[in-house]
């Protein structure tokens, strides 16, 4: 198996990281610190418009850079990115001030100001590069593209500049909190406030009262999206005893009725592109072989193949797998899942939570009370530190100030 060189990029050195930190710090001190919320809202909205304009370019880049099918990127990733940016643009205005009165008559009040953290900020991963939540709160940001898929971030940087996010020549140091999402923390000489998203081995739980057709669709999609190269992949599938056999048959039938079309991800009709690189392709195959060695039964897929310089892996699901087996406990980061039986709600919650890192989870049931109960019991959203998306992600870029004041109108009555 060989690889094709798409382009060349200089390997960044420590001094380049220092220069990026200096630039981010300088941009905060000279521009973003004094930027009004309305301006940030306008810039983020403008960036969303530019990304929509360049949807074809982003889809093409991700296809040749990471192997994801062109149509999937254009119809899902790009619209989701734009809606995310627009959410951050609209949400930021509501984040700055919350007040309460501490004593009757307003004699003593307390105002909580969501104050943007000083200077800048961190290195944001670029697998999903448009989650630029920190910019919504007036922070500056360093985007670090993955070494194997760097082109996304390069194009994003061009559009950020076009949108009007300005930056002058740096002159001051001092990095502040880091968001090194989807990486492992390394020892450092100083303490930083860190947001880290780590790996996942997420459960999908199918109860006997679930809508079977709906569950089959989402479980199949959730265990193979983007060639399984997704941290929130639903790679552990738990199915209640009474429907287990029917569900497993349905998974196999779904695979045969709607087989993945492997090939050039830029071509119409192709639904599965190649794995991102040779090392990952071989890693996925080694996990599949390990599963067979541990007596797992293959119900769909189970093999890989090469086409020219590219490596493809079939969507694969193993059954009859021990809970302590390697492919159940370790993240494969490929389209490989396992399916398991369970009898009771308590049993499946215990099994689902018996993992080192729980990033996400899915529950399929028609019983809303069960859904709420199980969702509350599942230990998901707990891989790493911090949050992505939503109000909580925005708040992670803020420091809360407690401001106490005397009311001028009441002071004379003391």
UniProtKB/TrEMBL annotation:
Belongs to the aldehyde dehydrogenase family. It is an enzyme of class 1 (oxidoreductase). It comes from Aspergillus tanneri. GO terms for molecular function: aldehyde dehydrogenase (NAD+) activity. This is aldehyde dehydrogenase (NAD(+)). SUPFAM superfamilies: ALDH-like (SSF53720). Its EC number is 1.2.1.3. Pfam families: Aldedh. InterPro entries: Ald_DH/histidinol_DH (IPR016161), Ald_DH_C (IPR016163), Ald_DH_N (IPR016162), Aldehyde_DH_dom (IPR015590). It catalyses: an aldehyde + NAD(+) + H2O = a carboxylate + NADH + 2 H(+). Keywords: Oxidoreductase. PANTHER family: ALDEHYDE DEHYDROGENASE-RELATED. Residues 13-101, 188-382 form the Aldehyde dehydrogenase domain. Gene3D superfamilies: Aldehyde Dehydrogenase, Chain A, domain 1, Aldehyde Dehydrogenase, Chain A, domain 2.
């Amino acid at each position: 198996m060989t690889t094709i060189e798409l382009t060349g990029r200089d390997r960044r050195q420590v001094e380049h990281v220092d220069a990026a930190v200096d630039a981010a710090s300088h941009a905060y001190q000279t521009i973003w610190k004094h930027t009004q919320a309305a301006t940030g809202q306008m810039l983020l909205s403008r960036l969303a418009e530019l990304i929509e304009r360049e949807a074809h370019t982003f889809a093409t880049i991700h296809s040749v850079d990471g192997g994801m099918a062109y149509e999937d990127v254009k119809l899902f990733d790009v619209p989701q990115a734009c809606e995310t940016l627009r959410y951050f643009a609209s949400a930021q205005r509501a984040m700055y001030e919350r007040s309460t009165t501490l004593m009757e008559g307003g004699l003593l009040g307390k105002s909580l100001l969501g104050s943007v953290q000083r200077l800048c900020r961190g290195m944001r991963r670029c697998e999903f590069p448009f989650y630029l939540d920190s910019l919504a709160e007036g922070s500056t940001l360093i985007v670090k593209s993955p070494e194997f898929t760097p082109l996304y971030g390069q194009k994003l940087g061009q559009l950020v500049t076009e949108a009007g996010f300005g930056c002058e020549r740096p002159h001051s140091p001092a990095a502040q909190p880091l968001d090194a999402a989807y990486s492992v923390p390394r020892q450092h000489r100083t303490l930083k406030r860190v947001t880290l998203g780590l790996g996942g081995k997420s459960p999908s739980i199918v109860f006997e009262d679930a809508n079977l057709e709906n569950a089959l669709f989402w479980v199949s999609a959730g265990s193979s999206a983007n060639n399984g190269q997704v941290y929130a992949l639903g790679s552990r599938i738990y199915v209640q005893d009474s429907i287990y056999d029917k569900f497993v048959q349905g998974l196999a039938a779904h695979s045969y009725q709607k087989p993945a079309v492997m090939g050039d991800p830029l071509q119409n009709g192709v639904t599965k592109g190649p794995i991102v690189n040779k090392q990952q392709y071989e890693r996925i195959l080694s996990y599949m072989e390990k599963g067979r060695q541990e007596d797992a039964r293959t119900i769909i897929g189970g093999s890989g193949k090469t086409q020219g310089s590219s490596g493809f892996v079939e969507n694969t699901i193993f059954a009859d797998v021990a809970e302590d087996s390697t492919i159940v406990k370790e993240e494969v980061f490929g389209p490989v899942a396992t399916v398991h039986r369970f009898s009771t709600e308590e049993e499946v919650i215990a099994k689902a939570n018996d993992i080192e890192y729980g990033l996400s989870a899915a529950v399929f049931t028609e019983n809303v009370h069960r859904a709420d109960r199980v969702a509350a019991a599942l230990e998901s959203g707990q891989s790493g530190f911090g949050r992505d998306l939503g109000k909580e992600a925005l708040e992670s870029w803020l420091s809360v100030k407690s401001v106490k004041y005397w009311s001028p109108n009441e002071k004379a009555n003391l």
